[in-house]
Predict the 3D structure of the following.
Amino acid sequence: MNKNIYNKNFIFKIINKDIKNKIYKKIKTRFPPEPNGFLHIGHAKSIYLNFEISKIYNGNCNLRFDDTNPEKSKKKYIKSIKKDIKWMGYKWNKKTMYTSKYFKNFYKYAIKLIKKNYAYVDKLSKIEIKNYRGTLKKAGKNSPYRNQSIKKNLILFEKMKNGYFNDGEVCLRAKINMKSKNIIMRDPVLYRIKKNSHCKTKNKWFIYPTYDFSHCISDSLEKITHSLCSLEFLDNKSLYKWILKKINIKNYPKQYEFSRLNLEYTILSKRKLKILIKKKIVKGWDDPRMPTISGLKRRGYTPKSIKDFCEKIGVSKKNHLIEIKLLEYCIRNNLNSIAPRFMSIINPIKLIIINLPKNYKEKIIVNNQILNKKFGTHKIYFCRNIYIDRSDFKENFNSKYRRLSINKEVRLRHAYIIKAIKIKKDNNGKIKKIFCTYDKNTLKKNPINRKVKGVIHWISQKYSIPAIFRLFQPIFTIKNPEQNKNYLNYINKKSIKIKKGFIEKDLISKKFKFFQFEREGYFIIDKKTSKKNKIITFNKTVSLKEKINKKNI
Ligand code: ATP
Ligand code: MG
């Protein structure tokens, strides 16, 4: 899908119509994360939509932290969310907004609702409220406190505000219709008591508005024109409108819903991601296996690739399970032009070229990028002792095998054709060394009389440095863990593999960030682990080609 198609999604159509009908002068959107965890790729979909709209229509996009729950809102999450949005390349409108900034406004509007007999203080317990609410098939039942006088409600609400009651003892509810077909409209809770300290307002408040009560008012106060949220809020829309109408507020933003992103082999919920961390299935929010923005960044994803992905998945009202290979395609496509190429050996085996003198050293200049000469060159050295990858040698082979075997030839990338002569095994029968000869007339050219199809990568032992390679697989073994209640039963125990190998020495002096290791894939240096282990450590971002066979996951 290209940009033109993204711009034609149903939300753009609505905005175009509103602009044509001169309903709004300036388009204003908002991204309203709850600071209860790190952002994930699902949030990226919403960020992309809201910020791109504000860019395209020359409008604004607010960042508003939905910090109405003091138990869950944390400063560290506020910090990480800001960092991730900036990393994606977006600037929000003026100051950062916080729902908690409007606590006074909500309080004022709650009193207004009570005075108009549209809200009451309910003393039913949480469970009773749930039971009274009914089900889709059964109408709800009025609370015995529903018809309390306005005066009594005002007194009780004041007591709630002053900390007279404990958590869960009473709450403020909207007086709508307990028989409504839409369960959300069956006297929803507007305010609850929480005695926790709030990360912004500390101990100033004992009462906290619910999402439904605070969100529409915050949108209105900020003059948001289009309030875009995911589909699960469809039923809340009636309440959104009801509240704004009953408090008689000036601006009436409109809510539109789109489908959430679901990605194969992944869960996209901060609450569930937090469980993975708690259970030590992953190491923190920015673990490269995590679908968080910080995890993807550490894995080697770029803002461009994530935006490209958001562009390609588009926006609709239908729920899809997006294939992981689409996300991988986007980063591969990006790295193909920005990552220099080097050689690394992930499963090393020693190879000795016996017809070379011991101290032989031949410098070969290699382009860092074949698509772009601006990336410059680096040096490799052809020597007697080199490393190749263990998987590039087979003792027993069939005619289709294109790599090295006894009496078989392959080309060493950028260098000569070699032929294996013999091998040496250790006591367990494992191959320790391969002995070869090289053909001196084959530097970067093919011999006249024979065809050599296989090309393998290699590194000179002397001009190599040790490195660790971290290879990843999805965290889950099932395609749609989000839909499975027992998702924790499907953890992939092989989601990380750690390999000790070698990289070219010349790589270190070049200040590159992303790498294509020939025949291995795209990699990024993991600064955190490199520092901790005191050995350069790479995270594998993605393979070079789409994997057809997923048998390992
Ligand atoms: P989570 O379960 O991960 O906490 P959430 O919806 O509760 O998700 P919020 O912090 O409230 O998270 O979300 C901020 C915005 O991001 C909301 O507008 C929400 O609709 C959107 N969003 C969250 N997850 C997704 C997703 N998977 N796809 C698209 N948008 C999403
Ligand atoms: Mg949430």
About this structure: The mean pLDDT is 95.
